[in-house]
Write a structure and sequence with these properties.
- The protein is built from 13 helices and 23 strands.
- The longest helix has 13 residues, at about 20-30.
- It has two domains: about 1-15 and about 225-425, UDP-n-acetylglucosamine1-carboxyvinyl-transferase, Chain (Alpha-beta prism), CATH 3.65.10; about 20-215, Enolpyruvate transferase domain (UDP-n-acetylglucosamine1-carboxyvinyl-transferase, Chain, Alpha-beta prism), CATH 3.65.10.10.
- The chain is globular, with a radius of gyration of 21 Å.
- α1 (about 20-30) runs parallel beside α2, α3 packs parallel to α6 and α11 packs parallel to α12.
- It starts with a strand and ends with a helix.
- The chain has helices spanning about 20-30, 45-55, 90-100, 115, 120-130, 165-175, 190-200, 230-240, 260-270, 315-320, 340-350, 385-395, 415-420; strands at about 1-5, 10-15, 35-40, 60-65, 65-75, 85, 105-110, 135-140, 140-145, 155, 180-185, 205, 210-215, 225, 245-255, 270-280, 285-290, 300, 325-330, 355-360, 365-370, 375-380, 400-405.
- The structure holds shikimate-3-phosphate.
Amino acid sequence: MRIEPGVAVQGALAVPGAKSISHRALLLAALAEGRSEIRGFGRSGDTLSTIAALRALGIEAEADGDTARVSGAGLRGLRPPGGPIDCGNAGTLLRLLAGILAGQEGSFELTGDASLRSRPMERIAEPLRLLGAEVETTHGGAPVTIRGGTLHPIRYALPVASAQVKSAVLLAGLYGSSGPTVVVEPTQTRDHTERLLEAAGARVGRRGREISVWPAERLEPLSLDVPGDFSSAVPFLVAATLLSGSVLRIVGVNVNPTRIGLLHVLERMGARISLFNRRSIGGEPGADIEVASAELTATAVSAAEVPLLVDELPLFALAAACARGESVVSGAAELRLKESDRIETITEALRAVGVRASATVDGFRVRGVPARPRGGRVHARGDHRIAMLGAVAGLLSREGVELEDAECVAISFPGFLEVLESVRER
Ligand code: S3P
């Protein structure tokens, strides 16, 4: 697919409902007693994998446009399907569902596509074993087999800052025999699970870096509006910032402080971004975002910031490519374990469009020039966030970008390329 250079981006748009929240809402709805309605559901390749997985487990779940409806079967109502459950490309689904299955009777096998099977699963297997489940991984990855049952509360210090691992342990904690299960985070990660557990009536506490969840007798069904996905808004923020003469408004976006690290980074680089109409959307902070073009200067992103912008680093790299000076990301070794080895795929994509970028062990360096990159041929490598990087690079470039494997954007944002075209100034 070819992305032609653009002049500016203009207008207003909305992005699909947050993927992280949509996965979690579906999973908790399946455990509730009664029917849940999830409006503004972020329908995508990944969240449809969650609906399919729930159906395989005997749950009635459907998505009609951007409304999902789920009939919950109660906390212990998931049934072994008698075959593997396919989680597709979705790490969040596999890891969070593993936490839930640890509390069910029976044996369950979770698998996924080649990318997901290559990702580390011992990080969830270890705490789930400590809780009392039998968990086997395949050379540390998926397929993962889980035999659940009665669990004993634990106190678990996360070896890596991961919201998926934290969430798997908290969800399993719902099935503890007595007393709270406690997770200690090295640095704060997204807290959507904690918020939704509370919305479903579970008891959750936070003190500093410690999050506790108490065993639950039942969960209440959800009636929820999902705010727009900040990660899906970011390509537009970067395009509008870098194409001079642009002004763009993105409405109804989730601005949970654990998600918007990139806003602060772009602001210190000189971006002109403002949040207004702040409101609560589905128990999460929401706002409209307005962005106008600006000239950027380079910055350094370090370990403490990484969990707050981990999925945004591909688009950060592109912003850095057009900022004056050398930008550096360090303490981001987790990038190697995402849908692709993003340290390699980010730097490969930047070099493909004529930018000077190099990989380091735990991050990358980008030599930024405040001018349009040349353009060229970008391969998304099956990674939706690299496809978005490539598409925005095309718009910013002098010669356009030939984007290989563009279809994989549908993992998080099926209409992304069409929405990007719709804000292009003609
Ligand atoms: C997610 C957590 C992050 C993030 C992923 C979604 C979540 O992963 O990269 O895209 O929904 O909890 P880690 O928990 O592995 O950091």
